Amino acid sequence: MLTIVWDVDDVLNDLMFQWLTQSWLLQHPNCRVRYAELKENPPDKVLGITREAYLDSLDAFRKTERAMNMQANGEVLAWLRVHGARFRHVALTARPLETAPDVAHWVMNNFGAWIRCFGVVPTRADMNVPTYDRSKGQYLSWLGCGDILVDDSIENIFQAKELGMKTLLYPQPWNESSLTTASLLNELSYLAENLD
Question: pTM higher than 0.90 for the full model?
Answer without folding.
Answer: yes
